[in-house]
Amino acid sequence: MISISTDMLQAWISGLLWPLTRILGMIAVAPIFGHRSLPARFKVALGVFITLAIMPGLPPMPTADMFSIQGVAILIQQLLIGVAIGFTMRIAFAAVDMAGHFCAMSMGLGFATFFDPQSSGQTTAVTQLFVVLAMLFFLSMNGHLILIMAVTESFMTIPVSLGPETGINFVRIVTWGEHIFSAGLQLALPVIAALLIANLALGILSRTAPQLNLFGIGFPITISIGLIVIALAFPRMTVPLERLISDSFNTIDQLSMPSPPLPLPQ
Question: Per the confidence metrics, is the pTM higher than 0.90?
Answer without folding.
Answer: no
